[in-house]
Design brief:
The chain contains seven helices and no strands. It is mainly alpha-helical.
């Protein structure tokens, strides 16, 4: 340590030595900036990795979670019963944080007769739940059809 101080004093005494010290200081500062940036990136990556690990862990737990048995309302395609069915389904299944495929399974298990025929053939995948729900909503949730049905 004392040798470093002596070397510094000798270098600082001359103009060329002083300029060399300034140059070394700039390089050291630049190197420190790089190290700081790398550390920040490392911390950001750590957070990302932790979040990914949490997601993986929650995916592992998902199959272990069992819903209690709930008697779901059936829907046969009657316009008169659509609103009640829709409210019942959304409150018990549709608004939960379930996988869309699980929601689709529950939805299809509730459908009978005309309503079931309307949505037959959809694959069991993430996009199908939304598509099936939109088809049912457009067919049975049309207010003009509901009003007309109530008149009869």
């Amino acid at each position: 340590m004392n040798a470093d101080i002596e070397e510094y004093k000798l270098m600082a005494a001359s103009r060329s030595g002083y300029l060399r010290l300034v140059q070394q200081a700039r390089k050291a500062t630049s190197d420190l900036d790089v190290i700081i940036r790398l550390c920040r990136n490392l911390n950001d990556n750590k957070v990302t990795i932790k979040m990914e690990m949490i997601e993986v862990e929650s995916q592992k737990l998902k199959p272990l979670i069992k819903l209690p048995k709930i008697q779901l309302m059936k829907f046969d395609g009657s316009v008169r019963s659509w609103v009640a069915f829709k409210d019942n389904f959304l409150s018990t299944i549709g608004n939960r944080s379930l996988d869309p495929v699980d929601k689709l399974r529950y939805l299809i298990s509730c459908l009978e007769e005309e309503a079931k025929k309307l949505v037959e053939g959809f694959p069991m995948d993430d996009g199908s739940y939304r598509n099936v729900w939109e088809i049912l909503e457009s067919r049975y949730g049309d207010k003009s059809i509901i009003v007309e049905d109530r008149k009869n």
